[in-house]
Amino acid sequence: MDTIENINDMSKTNECGAGFTRIKNRLARNLREVGEMIPVPREIDGRSNDLSRIGNQIRGWIGDTANSIERVDPAKIKTEFTSKVQENPGTSLLIAAAAGLLIGIVVRRR
User: Fold this and answer.
1) CA atoms of 30 and 42, how far apart (whole Å)
2) Structural contact between residues 17 and 74, judged by C-beta atoms closer than 8 angstroms
3) Is-contact 25 72, C-beta < 8 A?
4) What does the chain look like in DSSP terms, one character per residue?
5) CA 83, 88, 92, 93 torsion-angle sign
6) What confidence score (pLDDT) does residue 84 get?
7) Which residue, among 37, 98, 93, 41, has the nearest Cα to 62 in the 3D structure?
8) pLDDT (tens digit, 9 = 90+) per residue, 4-28?
9) Prediction pTM value
10) What are the beta bridge partners of residue 44?
11) What residues does 47 pair with on adjacent strands?
12) Positive or negative CA dihedral for 73, 74, 75, 79?
């Protein structure tokens, strides 16, 4: 119970949200920079070619992803996560155990 109370205290004082906000903003900014680095070939004889169209489409997807990341609300994620765990505690424990097992296997191999 102490852990749950600590998490609730962190969310009330916004300590958890501030770090998450910094990370998501940095990720969105880096994605936009990657999108800008994608070379888009020039039009040939006033017509766009397939590479130009594909490059612009990829840039658009990256921009959309960055926008989606910026719209993520950590409080909403926490609320949804908590409600799912409370609705299905057995499934949550199995998922946590499987994740711990996989992490253990990966760490041992190194």
Assistant:
1) 25
2) yes
3) no
4) -HHHHHHHHHHHHTHHHHHHHHHHHHHHHHHHHHHHHS--PPPBTTB--HHHHHHHHHHHHHHHHHHHHHT--HHHHHHHHHHHHHH-HHHHHHHHHHHHHHHHHHHHH-
5) positive
6) 93
7) 37
8) 455 455 445 455 567 888 898 899 9
9) 0.55
10) 47
11) 44
12) positive
Task: Indicate the length of the chain as a whole number.
Answer: 110
Answer for the pair 39, 55: CB distance below 8 angstroms, yes or no: yes
Rounded Cα–Cα distance for residues 59 and 31 (Å): 10
Cβ atoms 80, 38 nearer than 8 A: no
d(Cα 76, Cα 60) in Å, to the nearest integer? Answer: 26
What's the token pair of residue 74?
Answer: 């950590």
Side chain identity at residue 78, one-letter code: K
Give the Cα separation of 92 and 83 in Å (integer). Answer: 11
Backbone angles phi, psi at 25, to 5 degrees: -70, -40
| Angstrom distance (rounded) from CA 79 to CA 84 | 9
Tokens of 105: 């296997």
